[in-house]
Amino acid sequence: MPIDATQPYDDSNIFARILRGELPSKTVYDDEFALAFHDINPQAPLHILVIPKGAYVSWDDFSARASDAEIAGFVRAVGQVARDAGLVEPGYRLLANTGLDSHQEVPHLHVHIFAGRKLGPMLAR
């Protein structure tokens, strides 16, 4: 169910629980700013989620409240995950949903990295 990204952070969300070690994840990257792991319901042959370690509901929340170090660290982490997975040459897609119309399902900022096949053009309807 899509969430309202204007609501306060809910620390019981699945990604907060993963960050606290309450739920397992297949981790591919971990540093002081970000955690990356394989999506449990992949939408492409390779589907990795990258989340900041801070409590941010959405990209809007993150860009407004995160420190410069957190923003730089998170963006660098996304790039590092893609490089480590060998995705730069064949290509990959990044997606960050924000709010109801985008169908954001978890109230914690996350970037999807999709790869592993030709993804085709993005179509707006």
Describe the protein's architecture and organization.
The protein is an alpha+beta fold and 125 residues long. It is 24% helix and 19% strand. It contains three helices and five strands; from the N terminus they run αβββααββ. It has helices at residues 14-19, 59-65, 68-84, and strands at residues 27-30, 34-38, 46-52, 93-95, 111-115. A five-stranded antiparallel sheet has the order 1-2-3-5-4, covered by helices on one side. A hairpin with a 3-residue loop joins β1 (27-30) and β2. It is globular. The two termini are 20 Å apart. The relative contact order is 0.25. The model has no long low-confidence stretch (mean pLDDT 96).
Distance between the termini: 20 Å
The main pleated sheet reads as: 5 strands, antiparallel
Record the strand order, biggest sheet.
1-2-3-5-4
Structural class of the secondary structure composition?
alpha+beta
- Oligomerization status of the protein chains: single chain
Number of helices: 3
Shape: globular
Relative helix content: 10-25%
Number of strands: 5
Give the helix/strand layout.
Blueprint: H1 14-19, E1 27-30, E2 34-38, E3 46-52, H2 59-65, H3 68-84, E4 93-95, E5 111-115
Antiparallel strand pairs: 1-2, 2-3, 3-5, 4-5
In short:
The chain is an alpha+beta fold. The chain is built from 3 helices and 5 strands.
What are its keywords?
alpha+beta, 5-stranded antiparallel sheet, 125 residues
